[in-house]
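Hi R.,

Here's the chain you asked about this morning:
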Amino acid sequence: MLRTVLLGPPGAGKGTQAVRIVEKYNVPHISTGDIFRENIKNGTELGKKAQEYMNKGELVPDDLVIDLATSRLLEDDCKNGFLLDGFPRTVYQAEKLDEFLTAHGMKLDKVIDIEVEKEELITRLTGRRVCKKCGASYHVVNIPPKKEGICDICGGELFQRADDTVETVENRIEVYNEQTMPLVDYYKRADNIVTIDGALPLETVFAEIVKSIGE
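And the predicted structure, written out as tokens:
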């Protein structure tokens, strides 16, 4: 049984660690992006509402995000726990999540905050290259392809995504800090957050996460 929230800025390695956590603890990985796509695909009322905002290029309002996320937590596969990723993003969302969990006789076991210095995040994100054909991901320093600019898997051309340029990356980190850093303080007050150094090697980061969960 593990009910946890995963926090961390873009480039902190949350995706990699999320895969390992759900494998070890056998809980569903719940990201808001996946929830939106699922509801939109299935044509649910919540999905239709979310689509309206997204079509206008607007952020989906907090209350709608909360409704989407909490309805997902009531599904059968969440009975033995879950890993929330991308939700909550604001203190208001966190408060509403706490209210929902309390109302259903549940509580968060741990909030895991993966922290990485800004300079390291910029290096990680601006160095990312993606294959145009198969979508495989590389990094010019950490995971370089065998041949520069060419995908090892399918031979496709590698490119830098528009949201991986220095300017965009700095903006994404800034937005994260403004929106989500108050969340870290919120969970510190609740005394159920653990901070992990995301600059450590992947295996070490995962070992620290497991140790903090205490299982």
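The mean pLDDT is 91.

Let me know if you need anything else.
M.
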